[in-house]
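Morning, I've got a small favour to ask if you have a moment. I owe you a coffee for this, so here goes:
>
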Amino acid sequence: MNRDASPFRPGRWPLALRVPVLVSLLMIAAAAVLSHGVLQRLSRDQERHLGELSAAYLDGLATALQPAAIRRDVWETFDALDRAQGRYTALHPGVAMLVLPDGSILASSEPRRFVLGTALPEGLATRSAEAAGRGAPVMDEATARATLGRDLAEGGMGLGRIVAEVDIAPLLAERAAVRRTLLLANGALTLLFAILGFVLVRRLLQPLEILRAQVAAGGETGRVKPLPAAAIARAGPEFAALFGAWNRTAAAIGEREAMAARLAEEERYAQLGKLASGMAHEVNNPLGGLLTAVDTIATHGDDQQVREASVAFLRRGLDDIRNVVRASLVTYKGRPGDGPLHREDLDDLRVLVRHEVERRGLHLQWENALSAESPADRTLTRQIVLNLLLNACAASPDGATVRVVAITGPDGGVVIDVSDEGPGLPAPALALLADPEASPPEGGGLGLWIAVRLAHRLGGRISLCAAAQGTRIRLEVPGVGRVAGPREALAHVA
């Protein structure tokens, strides 16, 4: 079966169908973007409200539990936890407990599940520590639970930590309901507009159908016929002008057919003559020199220097003739990574990370003091900096500052510092900086691994610099650095 004639190919569909389908696809795309924005805003609002309720809940518990925590009074702690369970029904609190600094449970609202004196489960301990550190609940949609944590202290001495779990199933159900509503509403509107679009486009294209039938008839008979006056009178002003132009064209085509046939024959001979004369001219140009070289070899062939020079001349001349006969065009196409680095090439990265910066509420400080042009590799240097910048954004907490400082190195290369306010590099990342040829890390971290390998291929290096807060990574690329291996593969991976 001919694939081009398949009815399932959009190019074979009539215009009355393609236009509504295209409009439907655009509506689906717009609806998807808007729905994503609505769901994201709903999620942020839910998390903010949950955080506010959780803060009020933990404030009340902290006030009630602090005296009991100082005295390590189990019954008073249990009484405070039990009373708090019925006062915050809007939060849907589950279990709540007070954990001592040594990790043991002093009291719990569910003593059978969390036995007094035992250690807090590792997973719950990790989530509560994270919640206490960030001052916001840690949500787990898989279990429909959110973990709360608040550290208690008196006079600079830690008394323990309040750990609680709340039920977020109503929040998730609300998100699912909003998602279903959006899907149904967008689907119904898309279907309605697609049907209306099909009807309207089909009606608008009726004059074109008349013109198409006339063109098809002319293709079968070989003659172009004018449209009747009744068809022109029924058409709108735009199509009436089109039909009038068609009739004038039909009248002119008959007069030009004979002339076109004669001109085509003459043009064919003229083009053939131009091609032959051009080929003869291009081939004849080096022939005189080639014959001279042959005569020189015949006369002075015993002289090695003359013979070698003449043979080289012959080879070049024959190459020219071969290129003309083959009519080949050799075009050099630069590969990714070729070309110097300009200042604006680095500034482009601000646009590439703008979405991530705005999504996380980060502050990007950009100081580009590079010279107008650096001999450092353009594409690979940009890829390295982009990977480092994305890693810095991912490592920084919401609202933190990410800073990029770029200067020209002493040898004309570039020196670029990327700083964040994150918790610092993990051990596998530090190992990558020490060994550029190390294997990629397990469980992620490919961005830094690729950046280190690309810098190594360019003859540069990535190092960790001292920072008062967070992490500062420095990229140094020499101006004369060259890629030591196949860089296309690395460039595509990055």
The mean pLDDT is 77.
